[in-house]
Automatic annotation (TrEMBL):
<protein>
    <recommendedName>
        <fullName>DUF8001 domain-containing protein</fullName>
    </recommendedName>
</protein>
<feature type="domain" description="DUF8001">
    <location>
        <begin position="1"/>
        <end position="77"/>
    </location>
</feature>
<dbReference type="InterPro" id="IPR058314">
    <property type="entry name" value="DUF8001"/>
</dbReference>
<dbReference type="Pfam" id="PF26008">
    <property type="entry name" value="DUF8001"/>
</dbReference>
Length: 81
C-alpha cells in the first residue's frame, strides 16, 4: 500500500483528494474542530468511500456523496464555481 498523503484541510481540491484515494492512497487530513487539531482519514476500498473521523466512521456509497462530504466538512480547497 502506498504511503498516505498527508495534507492540511483546504490544501488540495476535492478532485485531487478523490484522485489520490481512487489510486489506492489514504488521505490524512489535519483539520481544526472546536479549537483542537484532529486527523481525518479518507479512503476507498474499491466500492465504498470512507471518512474515518475521531468520533465516527462515515460511509459513502458513491463518489458524488464523498465529494459532498469533502466540501461540507471543508477538507478540500474551495473551488471556483
Amino acid at each position: 500500500m502506498p504511503d498516505p498523503l498527508r495534507i492540511d484541510a483546504g490544501e488540495c481540491t476535492a478532485d485531487e483528494i478523490i484522485t489520490a484515494i481512487r489510486d489506492g492512497r489514504r488521505v490524512v487530513v489535519t483539520t481544526t474542530i472546536l479549537d483542537a487539531e484532529h486527523e481525518v482519514t479518507l479512503r476507498y476500498d474499491g466500492s465504498v468511500f470512507y471518512c474515518d473521523t475521531p468520533t465516527r466512521l462515515h460511509r459513502h456509497e458513491s463518489e458524488r456523496e464523498m465529494r459532498a462530504c469533502i466540501r461540507k466538512m471543508g477538507y478540500g480547497a474551495v473551488e471556483d464555481a
